[in-house]
Specification:
With about 375 residues, the chain is mainly beta. It folds into 3 domains: about 140 residues, conserved putative lor/sdh protein from methanococcus maripaludis s2 fold; about 90 residues, Elongation Factor Tu (Ef-tu), domain 3; about 60 residues, Helix hairpin bin (Helix Hairpins, Orthogonal Bundle), CATH 1.10.287.470. It has 2 helices and 23 strands. The protein is elongated, with a radius of gyration of 39 Å. The N terminus and C terminus are likely disordered.
Length: about 375
């Protein structure tokens, strides 16, 4: 136990220099030791250990320690995803036909229902006119037959036949009108058209892509999240995304939906977020990195260098009554240089972060000042 003088508490960083006055420091802790996360021990017995746990020279083993302390912990997850348009479609022809008019410019913003392409419609218009003429004739005959049926000059079977002919001609008109409508391609929703792949006079077949139409006012960002994050990823969770096209810009969005199934191989689930893109900077197909932040909570943290793995188990050397005590711990979340301890240590415990190879369970230790630049 080493008494310390003036009443001063100095702290630099999460595990900075400190001094404690008006009392005694924790067992084996001297001024200049760094508070921080607990450290694990090695399974190797290693190091000197004479009678009573002292080194062969009869002196305690010098170590550098840190304090296990609770700190706010908001774990971040980084993932990569692909940007998709809010709505996207390839515009194609329904039937084989020749293009007569193209009514859009490449990259033009269009409204829902705007005419984009017209095909040769002469045959379709002729078919419609023929069907409408037949419909008028059958309708006239049916109307006269009802008067004859009322006077018993026409049988019920003859009236039913005329009514069937009328219905058939009505269907012919509807089919002819649909064929005529197929000679015109309209925008199914508001958006921006892409590059056109055809010219006036081109003969196209069904499936031939004439152009694309994208509504990119909102970008859908699809990315995968590990199974362990599934409990904390919910609709409405905020995300931050970056792209190499705008390295200094952070795009904010929210999780809009989560896939109903996990990938059985990667054990991850696809998450979709929505990002406002009214300025049009993001394009469908962009590669983006995503950051999600889990809710912040207090966690017992120690420096990662204090851990000593032994197979699937982990240990630290805790300093108690001037001796190194080998303690098994369970770890939780991690962030660079730090690890959460969920069992095996308590807040305020002192752990060895440098010198674990020189001590074993019960070895007397003496806290040494940290080297230059440790703070």
């Amino acid at each position: 136990m080493i008494a310390v003088g003036a009443a001063v508490l100095l702290a630099l960083g999460a595990f900075g220099w400190f001094a404690i006055s008006n009392g005694e420091a924790p067992a084996g802790l001297t001024p200049g030791a760094r508070p921080g996360a607990t450290a694990g021990t090695d399974a190797r017995p290693g190091g000197p250990g004479g009678p009573g746990g002292l080194s062969p020279g009869g002196r305690p083993v010098g170590v550098i320690v840190a304090l296990a302390g609770k700190v706010p912990f908001a774990q971040q997850l980084e993932a990569v995803g692909n940007a998709r348009a809010n709505e996207s479609v390839d515009l194609t022809a329904k039937t084989s036909n020749r293009i007569t008019v193209i009514r859009f410019r490449e990259g033009q913003q269009v409204k829902a229902g705007d005419v984009l392409v017209e095909f040769d419609g002469e045959q379709a218009r002729a078919n419609l006119a023929d069907a409408e003429a037949s419909l008028r004739d059958s309708r006239s005959q049916f109307n006269r037959s009802r008067e004859l049926y009322a006077t018993k000059a026409l049988s019920e079977a003859q009236l039913d036949q005329l009514q069937a002919t009328l219905s058939s001609n009505e269907a012919r008109v509807a089919g002819a009108r649909a064929q005529l409508n197929d000679t015109i391609i309209r925008a199914p929703f508001a958006g921006r058209v892409g590059l056109r792949n055809v010219s006036v006079g081109s003969f196209v077949s069904p499936g031939t892509v004439i152009t694309t139409l994208d509504d990119a006012s909102v970008i859908k960002l699809d990315f995968s999240v590990p199974e362990v994050f599934l409990a904390t990823v919910k609709e409405g969770l905020g995300i931050q995304a970056h792209t190499s096209a705008y390295p200094e810009t952070e795009f904010s969005g929210k999780v809009s939906s989560i896939d109903s199934r996990l990938d059985p191989i990667s054990r991850s689930v696809t998450v979709r977020a929505r990002i406002d893109n009214r300025d049009g900077r993001l394009k469908p197909g962009m590669f983006m990195t995503v950051k999600l932040t889990r809710s912040e909570s207090d966690a017992l943290m120690i420096p990662e260098q204090a851990l000593i793995p032994e197979g699937e188990r982990k240990f630290v050397f805790a300093v108690r009554d001037g001796k190194a005590v080998r303690s098994e711990v369970r770890t939780g979340r991690r962030r660079p240089g730090e690890v959460e301890i969920t069992a095996g240590l308590a807040e305020g415990d002192v752990v060895v972060i440098e010198g674990t190879q020189k001590v074993r369970d019960g070895t007397a230790v003496e806290v040494q000042p940290a080297g230059p630049g440790a703070a």
